[in-house]
Amino acid sequence: MSRIVSAVIAALFAGAGAGAGVAGQRPAVAVERPAVVVSAAVSLTDVLQQLAPVFEAGGGDRVVLNLAASNTLARQVAAGARVDLFISADEARMDSVRGQLVAGTQVGLLSNQLAVAVPDDRPVQFRSIGELAGPSFRRIAVGDPAAVPADVYARVYLTRAGLWTQLEPRLLPSSSVRLALAAVENGAADAAIVYRTDIAAARRARVAFVVPEADGPRIVYPAAIVRGGRNPEGAARLLAFLRSEAAMQVFDRAGFRRVPVEANGQRVR
After folding, report:
1. Mean pLDDT by 10 residues, the chain (269 residues)
2. Phi and psi for 220 in degrees, rounded to 5?
3. Residue 186: inside a domain, yes or no?
4. Whole-prediction pTM
């Protein structure tokens, strides 16, 4: 039974009870709490769609997911969108909306790794990222390196590896990592540089190379409660749930990494 239906039934019973009471007394009306609106990086789509129903079933408020590229979400938050919880794929986007956040609520929720995706019918395994410069990779899909966090990370990594100048003419910018991965799956690109977790959810793409954590950029997904949201208490409960061991095990299975924990027990931002 949905919560809306339950609320309607409760209101009907409350009205019946009021009719037997003092004349003129208004019947009690059950008021449903507002949903928790979550603006989250599109790379979190699959795992958040798994976790939201678990949170709700455990007594949490209804969750509404707004999933898009982090730069798009940051612009929405900056413009005053009614968001309760913002989860970005990088700290720079979170920093850009610092004035819209509830002080002291930002945490480092997750980490990730860059990886190279290729069509699933292409049996290739890289020994190093340098193989991406081979002649068979003429079109390499990425997000927009000027805006999408995964591709900001990719540019940093490729520059450090001495490959950016060579590969830049081959890059096919997309508005998100999911669209970059889709270009590999539909044959528009020979490879894509995305998050490792995105490839895990792909149907027609496979991993050719995972950037070692020691070599790649530091990737952190920060989360924070947004000022002006309609349900900050629900957002706080949801954030606590997402940081719980039960939720972290789901993130682990999806391929995300845990952010290191400092001696005081707080996850590193």
Report:
1. 35 35 48 89 95 97 96 96 97 96 97 95 91 96 81 91 95 90 96 93 92 91 97 98 97 92 44
2. -130, 135
3. yes
4. 0.79
